[in-house]
Amino acid sequence: xxxxxxxxxxxxxxxxxxxxxxxxxxxxxxxxxxxxxxxxxxxxxxxxxxxxxxxxxxxxxxxxxxxxxxxxxxxxxxxxxxxxxxxxxxxxxxxxxxxxxxxxxxxxxxxxxxxxxxxxxxxxxxxxxxxxxxxxxxxxxxxxxxxxxxxxxxxxxxxxxxxxxxxxxxxxxxxxxxx
Length: 179
Fold this sequence. Notes:
Blueprint: H1 17-30, H2 35-38, H3 44-50, H4 66-79, H5 85-97, H6 100-109, H7 117-131, H8 138-146, H9 151-173
Helix pairs in contact: 1-3, 4-5, 4-6, 4-7, 4-9, 5-6, 7-9
């Protein structure tokens, strides 16, 4: 399978106006324009808004750590059926933890990855939110709180799950594959 997107990516050197501004914001933090961002060039304001969400700043979350954010993103990618998202974030998780086997276990089936009850409850929540969002209830939030998750951590979980639900769809819509 080709790693060439199905939509044109505007080259950095040709970007002007709003797109130049969006690219510059991404370049400040990333040093380059990742393909997953470049395919969004047709909507520069949307692209610029997403420039603040990148791995090194933990996707703009302060209440959860990078390991947990990548676990959530991996589970969401699998739940979304994304051939791009799950593997991409399992790769990030392996980099963060230094544990490829753990990252692969989360990718393959997080329910069998030997997680403690607290983390398992949170990932179950992310899975449910991704698969059946219309079935979320107050008891889901209560269950997270009962395991010790704070409201800011729950918000961060929803943010990461929602952000990657979107990005998984961007990747799949434009035929992105992992390099």
